[in-house]
Backbone:
């Protein structure tokens, strides 16, 4: 396994180092190459993602990213020049974001129930296409447009992926989240494609929720969701909310997948670089470790993936929630659990 | 006061009738004209909002709407042909949505704190402009676009309104919610205008939150928000979430305001027509009553507006939460509280 690692900024390097420790327990032979991208490189050289680096990244089986971002870099630069550029260049069309409330974890809801969902967020089009512009800038008649671009090709492949995932889960339930009553063109295309693809999956039950109503359900009845499929922007919003409901972005992992496998997929914790706590051993590496589990699952190493997730579940159920330990201590615990080979309750 | 009333569908007429009962206690001389718009009229005549009705509505000081919608009408028809059409025709640029967790009300959060915010949602542009289309429909190469249209004119007037409101509140705090790191054109225009207008309001502190992070804050720390200003679509999403956090859309009121007063403003509960419980006296008219309070406030009858809100607060604090009573009983209680003229704790 050839793995490219982008530790990034802030707590990125700290959590990545624990994630690799855990990976080492199941794939000791992984070949790891580090790529120095993020705020520091941009400050030093002005580079965000040089073509040569992009070419090298493509030679790997997968990419693990820690976190990117620093208050010294103007908003949008690293996001668009590095994070989103990677997603678009690598055709990461399925942005996979599981949200599970693990036993022992207390989220903000008084009574969340049994939450175990996965959001399949489209990753390469919609309002993220970057199409738009400014007219009459800096005058009182200025106009800004943003164009959401939605293609049958782009939607069908993520909808198909979402149905496949739903089919492999016990509840076999899929919810399309959109805003079809207002965004009539994109809404119509998404709805028609979900309907079409559903014909190939008669055992999957299909529901629809407007994005505004979905946010209500996520806080009043999150256990209703199994697989959600949605567009890039709605997915951005509801996955942060779903992460909050299941204990916070400190625990949320994500995969940016090219389902065709033409490009390496990229795995990253949903959290950011948290510069305020960087370098102090305060960051919880759990989301990075769960990202490694998603990575292994994507590469077909299902058993190792499950073992890591089960170890995380065990640790979350048994840790002292008030003081779960330092970054390294959590990483050590998880590595030991994984290596102990014990099948803990997942 | 000349008031146009659109009772609408489902529970709309029931909750409007209680709201008018309460209004009668403070403005017994209000002249009320009912307009029959909604699902029933569309089924009977195919009409959604005839020009003649639009003309008549304009002759009023304000509009009170119950709820519109029925499962027998295809999604989008009433929304775009009636609700959104009213907002656009009447230039309802400020969509005002307070979210307050009243004492005695239990929301879904284990520990919500003291929530009292107001969202100023832009109401006449953004992704709601209806600009977009389908290309190569029903082929595998189909493309759907949605264009978010944002004008300096349109943004400035709602931002100015939001700052004015912030200035009149104890905390004097304003948060812009957007997604400036991705939607760079619209984000740039919104940010620059907030910065400009803030210079005229040095006493108002200004914060910024990406919409995805805002959903996290709304469930982990909602009391941080005072006034939120945001675009039409983000406002749609976060006001539903804010309503859920403060006890549900059954309690949430809204105003669609033309700040210039060229057109009558429209007030409506955030909830829908709830056809499943229609006609059974099960609907809580509180959101409709609070909409009347917003209406009176907008028309300058501040004292009456406050009295109604205080009565609602008193009722919510003292009612049997498990069985608050039938629609009419709640309306009777609120009317009696309002008429008793007692200044209850607001
Ligand atoms: C950082 C930002 C560009 C990104 C996004 O909007 O997709 C982030 O919020 C995420 O969800 O991964
Ligand atoms: C019904 C729908 C068109 C409307 C909107 O999206 O604005 C509703 O969700 C609201 O928030 O008033």
Residues:
């Amino acid at each position: 396994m050839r793995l490219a690692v982008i530790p990034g900024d802030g707590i990125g390097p700290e959590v990545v180092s624990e994630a690799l420790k855990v990976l080492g327990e199941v794939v000791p032979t992984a070949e790891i190459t580090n790529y120095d991208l993020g705020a520091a490189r941009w400050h030093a050289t002005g580079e965000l993602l040089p073509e040569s680096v992009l070419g090298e990244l493509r030679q790997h089986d997968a990419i693990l990213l820690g976190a990117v971002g620093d208050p010294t870099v103007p908003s949008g630069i690293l996001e668009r020049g590095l994070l989103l550029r990677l997603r678009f260049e690598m055709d990461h069309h399925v942005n996979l974001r599981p949200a599970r409330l693990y036993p022992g974890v207390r989220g903000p809801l008084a009574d969340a129930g049994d939450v175990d969902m996965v959001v399949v967020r489209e990753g390469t089009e919609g309002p993220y296409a970057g199409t738009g512009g400014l007219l009459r800038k800096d005058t009182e008649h200025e106009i800004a447009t943003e164009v959401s671009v939605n293609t049958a090709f782009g939607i069908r492949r993520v909808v198909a992926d979402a149905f496949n995932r739903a089919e492999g889960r016990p509840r076999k339930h899929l919810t399309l989240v959109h805003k079809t009553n207002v965004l009539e063109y994109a809404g119509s295309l998404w709805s028609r494609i979900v309907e079409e693809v559903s014909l190939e999956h008669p055992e999957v039950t299909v529901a629809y929720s407007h994005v505004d109503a979905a946010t209500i359900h996520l806080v009043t009845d999150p256990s209703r969701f199994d697989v959600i499929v949605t567009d890039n922007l709605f997915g951005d919003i509801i996955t942060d909310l779903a992460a909050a409901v299941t204990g916070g972005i400190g625990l949320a992992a994500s995969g940016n997948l090219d389902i065709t496998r033409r490009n390496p997929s990229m795995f990253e914790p949903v959290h950011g670089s948290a510069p305020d706590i960087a370098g102090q051993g305060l960051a919880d590496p759990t989301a990075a470790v769960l990202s490694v589990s998603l990575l292994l699952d994507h590469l077909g190493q299902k058993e190792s993936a499950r073992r890591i997730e089960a170890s995380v579940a065990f640790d979350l159920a048994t840790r002292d929630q008030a003081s779960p330990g330092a970054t390294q201590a959590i990483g050590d615990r998880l590595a030991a659990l994984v290596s102990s080979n014990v099948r803990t309750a997942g």
